[in-house]
Amino acid sequence: MALTDDDGKIRLRHSPYSLLAGLLILGAALAAGLHLVGLSVALSIVAVAILAYQPTRSPSAGLAPAGVVGEPPQSVDAPRDNIATTSAALSAIDIPLYLIDHRENIIFQNAAAAQSFGGIEPNAHITTRLRSPAILDCVRETIAKGNVNTVEYTERHPSTRVYLVRVAPVVTGTGRPTHFVLSFRDISESRVVERMRSDFVANASHELRTPLASLQGFIETLQGPAKNDPKAGERFLGIMLEQVQRMNRLVDDLLSLSRLELKAHIAPSDRVDLLPLLGHVRDALQPLAASLDVEVVLNLPTEAVFVAGDRDELIQVFENLVQNACKYGQEGKRVEVTLNPTEGGHGAEVSIRDFGPGIAEEHIPRLTERFYRVNVEASRSKKGTGLGLAIVKHILTRHRARLIVKSEIGKGSVFTVRF
Amino acid sequence: MTQSHIMTAYDEELRFLTRRIAEMGGMAEQMASDAVRALVNADAALAQRVISDDAILDAAEREITDKAILTIARRQPVANDLREIMGSIRIASDLERVGDLGKNTAKRVIAVQQSGVPRALARGMEHLSELALAQLKDVLDVYTTRSAEKAQAIRDRDEEIDAMYTSLFRELLTYMMEDPRNITSCTHLLFCAKNIERIGDHATNIAETIYYMTTGTQPDGERPKDDNTATMTVQG
């Protein structure tokens, strides 16, 4: 980091101090804007302390290196410690922050920025990390005019995140500002919630229409022509129950998809051992497998295989995949679940193989799209909602894992999850 | 990246190229993603903006090429630096093409608007563009780090886009056979899908250029391909 550069010892005692203090005040203002009042107060105190501290340090600062006059070493380290503390304080703020100069070079990025947009070399140009024309326009306007600019920025890959980007000059004196702060406020949740609501309504209204129409039809028949026919009534009620159950499953799946979308941008931090997890999935699906006359075989290594993940979500992934393999590969009578740690021990691969009829090539890339069905009738008869693999894909995206599908007609399919 | 030279002006020139390429990349990314959004949401205003943005991208490409040629003439670069400069020219032209493809997709928004894009097809289009844009974003991220290893990994991922494109192609053919009234919009969508697929190809080109810039050798082996549309027929 540029601020702790060895050659910069003497310069460090002048400009960067006021600069960092300014940055801190800005950070404080930002925090206040986010209603983190406690944090902002604390930051202001730190900033004021640094500002007050500077004059007492500067008389001796420019004179001689401390070691020569024999000052105790800790007093030399003190300003360095302060800079370290200040940058650590900035890194403790969970909002990505960049400090740039008037030539658009990045002087400092806090930990949240490094985590969100990747690390940088010292003094890298801002475009090494931020390419969006809208953000660059804002930065340029702020540098030229010294005003504060904000813009909304959407990042779509690996997951959708929406930021409110604010570019503000660091005002330290009366002259033109030479340094600027970029802060990124994550407003993904409110945006995703908005879009989710409209998606949900669109999907739900479209997919619920068929079962609702059939319910209505049966009710009208029961009220009219079949009024006094207990036999038909019983049959109709059975079908109606089935339709209601289908709507129920659909709403459940849509809701769990929505919940996943809401947190898609937060990578899971827990570590999960896949061995017991896969065992649990097999046990949970045993009744279904037995009823379909399918045997689920586990090929597991002897040692634990840990991956970063959310236990419940991974269970859902493997349950969905094994369930699909049992249902659609029923005629193969066997489903193999194989776990292999990848080379170097950084990841793992879980493959679920069935020996069913296989999936035609043209459908494979589309399987994870919502409501995409290879065969609508087959899917309905097997109580599918058309959302199972979309859910799997969403969970895996959040886990930064990939789903790879290989299939051959007449031989079966392999769904591989690569962590 | 490159070592520093005695003349800082030379370094400045190289840095300028890198910076402008990254900016062009940001612009191309934005155009491609806006074009698909305009198509799926039938948003004519957004489409119009993409069309007019293309001029900026064209100007940027000319500027980069001019500056690169000037640098070559003035500094007589060799080895690493020469590859760096030649690479900039190539990447700039790939990015300019990405912008053109975005613009062409945006132009078709108006033609498709009347009949609208069927839901299932819109989802397919979005899915295809997600893959292509992810490819483009990754390759532009790699450009700033110059990791040959990552560039190679991106190159190997083009297959996925091809498979997706093949599937969409087939679906569009079936729609047209179902009802001749679909032919107009489906033909436009066919071109849009092709445009998006081409964006993925340009991203792969850029990955190859980056590999060459860093290592001085071409990446090994054939590019993985899974585009079977050239021979595809659908039985009626």
Name some characteristics of this structure:
heterodimer, A: 419 residues, alpha+beta, Beta-Lactamase, Helix Hairpins, Heat Shock Protein 90, 13 helices, 12 strands, 17% strand, disordered N terminus, B: 236 residues, mainly alpha, Methane Monooxygenase Hydroxylase, Chain G, domain 1, elongated
Descriptive account of the structure:
- The complex is a heterodimer of chains A (419) and B (236).
- Chain A is an alpha+beta fold and 419 residues long.
- Helix content of chain A is 51%, strand content 17%.
- Chain A is built from 13 helices and twelve strands.
- Chain A is elongated and about 90 Å long.
- The two termini of chain A are 32 Å apart.
- The N terminus of chain A is likely disordered.
- With 236 residues, chain B is mainly alpha-helical.
- Chain B has a single domain, classed as Up-down Bundle (Methane Monooxygenase Hydroxylase, Chain G, domain 1), CATH 1.20.58.
- Chain B has seven helices and no strands.
- Chain B is elongated, with a radius of gyration of 20 Å.
- Classes of the chains: A alpha+beta (419), B mainly alpha (236).
- At the A-B interface, helix 7 of A face helix 1, helix 4 and helix 6 of B.
Lay out the secondary structure.
The complex is a heterodimer of chains A (419) and B (236).
Chain A: H1 9-12, H2 15-33, H3 37-61, H4 66-69, H5 73-92, E1 97-101, E2 106-109, H6 111-117, H7 133-145, E3 149-155, E4 161-169, E5 179-186, H8 188-223, H9 230-262, E6 271-273, H10 274-292, E7 295-299, E8 306-308, H11 311-328, E9 334-341, E10 348-354, H12 376-381, H13 388-398, E11 402-408, E12 412-418
Parallel strand pairs in A: 7-9
Antiparallel strand pairs in A: 1-2, 1-5, 3-4, 4-5, 6-8, 9-10, 10-12, 11-12
Chain B: H1 8-41, H2 44-75, H3 79-113, H4 119-145, H5 148-155, H6 158-178, H7 183-215
